[in-house]
């Protein structure tokens, strides 16, 4: 059994495009105990891999450029469409994002539309002043954090000040509460009705006091190596539940693995 650390910070001279969410490393030369596999049905040895540790950055880019837009459509002039965006970055609290949204809206709506955050109810309110003439829709990331439905039109239904409560609870985690970890070296298995090389799914912890968080696997799950001991490199990819690369804000991602020879397949 061989323990190995794989990291987004390793082999950058070879794999220059490594990121925290997708990284590749060269593997060391495997010992004689991990001889190449030829054909399993002939009784030759096979090999397995397991994840023993996972370190990941605590901060995430919870508002990315894929979903940081606010679309404003004038009710009386539906051909007048204004798109406003907030800075794509890590927002530590819902209130910090609400402040940025209100600042971005101010020059275009003259305070006719604003957002209000309630820590007590964990809801966000979209506030339309009297005689507001805009229909508002939010990009994916903004909607997820503020608790509204993405790309859905919201507007005042009466000619007076009107508040719309968010559809869901507000949370700075947005859609980033789980991580899917894929490994290109393992045999594929089914996830629902699709074959994938998924390695593990992890619930993301939220702790801004630490730069990096650690998940130990006391009872690791073993996966078959697709090409036995012939592999020279290995790649890990971390996504969110929608399949997008996980938006780590900064830092380093590291995976601790072990590779072993399956004795039950030997002659």
Described by the principal axes of the CA atoms, the overall outline is: elongated
> What are the secondary-structure elements, in order, as H or E?
EEEEEHEEEHEEEEEEEEE
Q: What gyration radius follows from the Cα positions, in whole Å?
A: 24 Å
CATH fold annotation of the largest domain: Jelly Rolls
Total of helices = 2
**How far apart, in Å, are the first and last alpha carbons?**
19 Å
Beta strand count? 17
Q: Which CATH class of the largest domain applies here?
A: Mainly Beta
Structural class of the secondary elements? mainly beta
Low-confidence stretches: 36-41
The quaternary structure here is single chain
**Helix proportion:** under 10%
* CATH architectural name of the largest domain: Sandwich
How does this structure look, described?
The protein is mostly beta strands. It folds into two domains: 2-60 and 176-265, Jelly Rolls; 69-165, no CATH class. The protein has two helices and 17 strands. The chain has helices at residues 94-109, 140-146, and strands spanning 2-7, 22-26, 46-57, 69-74, 81-85, 113-118, 123-128, 134-138, 162-165, 178-183, 189-191, 194-196, 198-203, 212-216, 222-224, 233-239, 254-262. Strands 1, 3, 14, 15 and 17 form a five-stranded antiparallel beta sheet that branches. A hairpin with a 2-residue loop joins strand 11 (189-191) and strand 12. It is elongated. The two termini are 19 Å apart.
């Amino acid at each position: 059994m061989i323990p190995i650390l794989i990291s987004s910070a390793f082999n950058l001279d070879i794999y220059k495009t490594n990121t925290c969410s997708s990284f590749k490393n060269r593997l060391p030369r495997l010992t004689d105990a991990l001889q190449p596999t030829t054909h399993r049905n002939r009784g030759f040895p096979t090999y397995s891999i397991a994840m023993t540790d996972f370190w990941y950055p605590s901060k995430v880019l919870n508002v990315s450029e894929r979903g940081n837009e606010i679309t404003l459509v004038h009710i009386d002039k539906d051909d007048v469409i204004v798109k406003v965006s907030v800075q794509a970055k890590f927002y530590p609290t819902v209130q910090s994002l609400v402040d940025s949204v209100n600042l971005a809206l101010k020059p275009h709506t003259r305070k006719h539309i604003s957002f209000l955050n309630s820590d007590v109810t964990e809801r966000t309110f979209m506030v339309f002043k009297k005689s507001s003439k805009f229909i508002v829709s939010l990009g994916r990331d903004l909607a997820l954090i503020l608790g509204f439905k993405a790309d859905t039109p919201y507007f005042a239904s009466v000619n007076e000040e009107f508040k719309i409560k968010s559809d869901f609870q507000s949370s700075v985690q947005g859609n980033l509460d789980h991580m899917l970890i894929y490994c290109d070296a393992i045999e594929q298995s089914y996830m629902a009705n699709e074959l994938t090389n998924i390695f593990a799914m992890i619930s993301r912890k939220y702790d801004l006091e630490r730069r990096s968080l650690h998940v130990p696997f006391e009872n690791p799950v073993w996966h078959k190596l697709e090409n036995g001991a012939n592999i020279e490199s290995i790649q890990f990819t971390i996504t969110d539940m929608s399949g997008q690369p996980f938006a780590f804000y900064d830092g380093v991602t590291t995976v601790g693995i072990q590779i072993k020879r399956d004795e039950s397949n030997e002659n």
